[in-house]
Amino acid sequence: MEIIMSILAGFLFTVGLYLILTKNLIRIIIGSSVLSHGAHLLLLTMAGLKTGAPPLLGLNADTYVDPLPQALILTAIVISFGVTSFILVLGYRTYKVTGAAETDQLRGTDTDE
Amino acid sequence: MKYNDVILQTVTKFISFLIFLFAIYIFFNGHQEPGGGFIGGLMTSAALVLLLLAFDMETVRRAMPIDYKTMIAIGLVFGVGTGVGSFFFSTPFLSQTFGYFHFPVLGELELTTTLAFDLGVYLTVVGATMTIIQTIGEDK
Amino acid sequence: MSNWLILPVLIPLIAGIVALFFPKRVTAQRIWAFITSLILIGVNVFLLTYILANGIMTLELGGWEAPFGIVLVGDSLAVLLTTTTSLVTLPIIYFSFSTIGVGREKYYYYSFIQFLIAGVSGAFLTGDIFNLFVCFEVLLLASYALIGHGSTKTQLKESFNYVIVNVVSSAFFVIGVAYLYAVTGTLNMAQLSQRVSETGAEPIITVIAILFLIVFGLKGALFPLYFWLPGSYSVPPTAIGAIFAALLTKVGIYSIFRTYSIIFNEDTAVTHTILLVLSAVTMIIGVIGAIAYRDVKLILVYNVIVAVGFILFGVASLNSDAFVGAIYYLLHDIVIKAALFLIIGALITAAGTSKLSGMGGIIKHHPLLTWMFFISALALAGVPPLGGFPGKLMLVVGGAEAGHYIVVAVMMIASLLVLFSVIRIFLQGFLGEPKLTHAEQHGSIKAQMPPIVFLVALSVFMGIGAEVMYPFVESAAQTLINPQAYIEAVLGGEA
């Protein structure tokens, strides 16, 4: 199971990197979010995918899974939610102010030299 | 521009309240069971976004004149405030405590200080999400 | 008492939150920001003296015990850095009053600055790798907001690059944390230090060490990963540039400091050699940039990169003298970079341009600014008895002790060229033919002088008062060389 998940994480990384390397701002933003999700999946996988009940007090199970990676991943997801929504607004502002939806229109500086 | 979206508007009037209710249920369900401020907040903002889609921005703003930026600030005050409380009880920062209280109608319930923290998270998430959506949605 | 340790994070956080409530009252915003940063300095100085007297202080958040919960560790290195941070924040906030513009002030400028400081202090104090990640994200989010603040065209262009680069590096940070947790089963720095020294020089640990070097190298602008820095530090207003140059790269450097001294200290033949080579190349690249550019802002920005090389050379040398030197240089660099950026900000206001070719004869109307620049230029290059000297001296001694003579030579040459790059600003910009008559002067810089004088005085004190500073720095270096005290303070006596 860990192998499959690792491959999936790698796949998400590939997709994310491919999207980040394209020119379109929206694709770059989606790519960055896919990339973070690949990292989160890896975090969950690396801690070991054990069989056990969810770490909740209400369940009276014999074994529980390790709660720490889940706490970490939750934090990481919330952070990437915040960052992604920020980049969306930033990308939108960039488009509004510069009129550029692609990165090659953003190249160079406006200073006169 | 005039769209004829009677179906969406009628359904939204009904559905959005269901989503609100479920969001509140999820919010109080947190701490011991899956749920809590973050997804409760996201769900509430989903209901608000549905309202924004069905009606236009002005109508929603007239119905609910809330300044979402201030909402973020209030949420943060709740979040940090629960931590600061530990200074007065000389326990480590962010310590939590709980107790059982008797409510009319509802009966015996467990209340924790984490609930205040979660309320902070809830308000911050709703405030932040709605600020972003309004910023992008405002100018055509 | 141990709750006090959260205050360097909590005060700016609360200050930022409260400021959210009255964004349009600019005067109130200014007064509030100024008062809270004064309080922050007081608390930090108190903590510093307390820790020097009573040893390392720890705070287990929420009462969860050390290896399981998140722990804050106040050793002298961490608190020295938070103190310096607060000392630099105050003048930068004062400088913002007259330079940043009311439009920006109304859009939560001071709140973002405060959140940034909270993140920086948190990153210095934390004793948990994942918490370090969280603090990084806090300060990065604040910096994203600041770098694009005001939404001018060039700012938006550069901020998009900056954000994407940092998102990718954060993803790598999460991956590094994942591997580390898989291999060692803990994320507490003290316990990591123990577990890694038990397993010894396993190749997988070395791989993780390199992964973290990439992550922190990206944040700290180490050689192949510095490419985002010149653009993004030079486009925002100088007050923001100053706080970035003073603090942001330093957090990355600090993290390398921590992880490479107390955790990844087994397979030094690989990890520290790579660090050594990279630091040398960073110095060379930085100095080339500093000499090549004719724009005063860019000259300074490349000097930030040179300093990264200097400090990490101390980490790579891995002995107590080099650590003392590196810490001393790190502290002084925070102060002097802030000072230089503020001076350049005043200079650009006075000259109306950031191009060297467009300015000249500033000394005629602004003699005080000129001499302040002269002093800080010498301090930057490490001319005795000014602030940069003790750090550089100890770095050279430590480097020679470790036998890295070539890099020491590179460092000496780089220092000379750094001096050349800033003295050129002095000669062309401040001396030379006046390009503007008095009537054409672009604005008064009187209100900008007090913070500059304060920072330069602080830098001079760090040089002349090196005797006073030494015990603090010495004890900071000791905790890095000998992590046992750190481990015991965090995990209790059984270690």
Automatic annotation (TrEMBL), chain A:
<comment type="similarity">
    <text>Belongs to the CPA3 antiporters (TC 2.A.63) subunit C family.</text>
</comment>
<dbReference type="InterPro" id="IPR050601">
    <property type="entry name" value="CPA3_antiporter_subunitC"/>
</dbReference>
<feature type="transmembrane region" description="Helical">
    <location>
        <begin position="6"/>
        <end position="21"/>
    </location>
</feature>
<keyword id="KW-0472">Membrane</keyword>
<keyword id="KW-1133">Transmembrane helix</keyword>
<dbReference type="GO" id="GO:0005886">
    <property type="term" value="C:plasma membrane"/>
</dbReference>
<keyword id="KW-1003">Cell membrane</keyword>
<dbReference type="Pfam" id="PF00420">
    <property type="entry name" value="Oxidored_q2"/>
</dbReference>
<keyword id="KW-0812">Transmembrane</keyword>
<feature type="transmembrane region" description="Helical">
    <location>
        <begin position="28"/>
        <end position="49"/>
    </location>
</feature>
<feature type="transmembrane region" description="Helical">
    <location>
        <begin position="69"/>
        <end position="90"/>
    </location>
</feature>
<protein>
    <submittedName>
        <fullName>Na(+)/H(+) antiporter subunit C</fullName>
    </submittedName>
</protein>
<dbReference type="InterPro" id="IPR039428">
    <property type="entry name" value="NUOK/Mnh_C1-like"/>
</dbReference>
TrEMBL record, chain B:
<dbReference type="InterPro" id="IPR007182">
    <property type="entry name" value="MnhB"/>
</dbReference>
<feature type="transmembrane region" description="Helical">
    <location>
        <begin position="7"/>
        <end position="28"/>
    </location>
</feature>
<keyword id="KW-0812">Transmembrane</keyword>
<keyword id="KW-0472">Membrane</keyword>
<comment type="similarity">
    <text>Belongs to the CPA3 antiporters (TC 2.A.63) subunit B family.</text>
</comment>
<feature type="domain" description="Na+/H+ antiporter MnhB subunit-related protein">
    <location>
        <begin position="7"/>
        <end position="131"/>
    </location>
</feature>
<feature type="transmembrane region" description="Helical">
    <location>
        <begin position="115"/>
        <end position="136"/>
    </location>
</feature>
<feature type="transmembrane region" description="Helical">
    <location>
        <begin position="76"/>
        <end position="95"/>
    </location>
</feature>
<keyword id="KW-1133">Transmembrane helix</keyword>
<feature type="transmembrane region" description="Helical">
    <location>
        <begin position="34"/>
        <end position="55"/>
    </location>
</feature>
<dbReference type="InterPro" id="IPR050622">
    <property type="entry name" value="CPA3_antiporter_subunitB"/>
</dbReference>
<dbReference type="GO" id="GO:0005886">
    <property type="term" value="C:plasma membrane"/>
</dbReference>
<keyword id="KW-1003">Cell membrane</keyword>
<dbReference type="Pfam" id="PF04039">
    <property type="entry name" value="MnhB"/>
</dbReference>
<protein>
    <submittedName>
        <fullName>Na(+)/H(+) antiporter subunit B</fullName>
    </submittedName>
</protein>
UniProtKB/TrEMBL annotation, chain C:
<feature type="transmembrane region" description="Helical">
    <location>
        <begin position="159"/>
        <end position="184"/>
    </location>
</feature>
<comment type="similarity">
    <text>Belongs to the CPA3 antiporters (TC 2.A.63) subunit D family.</text>
</comment>
<feature type="transmembrane region" description="Helical">
    <location>
        <begin position="300"/>
        <end position="320"/>
    </location>
</feature>
<feature type="transmembrane region" description="Helical">
    <location>
        <begin position="326"/>
        <end position="348"/>
    </location>
</feature>
<feature type="transmembrane region" description="Helical">
    <location>
        <begin position="269"/>
        <end position="293"/>
    </location>
</feature>
<keyword id="KW-0813">Transport</keyword>
<dbReference type="InterPro" id="IPR050586">
    <property type="entry name" value="CPA3_Na-H_Antiporter_D"/>
</dbReference>
<protein>
    <submittedName>
        <fullName>Na(+)/H(+) antiporter subunit D</fullName>
    </submittedName>
</protein>
<feature type="transmembrane region" description="Helical">
    <location>
        <begin position="130"/>
        <end position="147"/>
    </location>
</feature>
<dbReference type="InterPro" id="IPR001750">
    <property type="entry name" value="ND/Mrp_TM"/>
</dbReference>
<feature type="transmembrane region" description="Helical">
    <location>
        <begin position="6"/>
        <end position="22"/>
    </location>
</feature>
<feature type="transmembrane region" description="Helical">
    <location>
        <begin position="452"/>
        <end position="473"/>
    </location>
</feature>
<keyword id="KW-0472">Membrane</keyword>
<dbReference type="InterPro" id="IPR003918">
    <property type="entry name" value="NADH_UbQ_OxRdtase"/>
</dbReference>
<keyword id="KW-0812">Transmembrane</keyword>
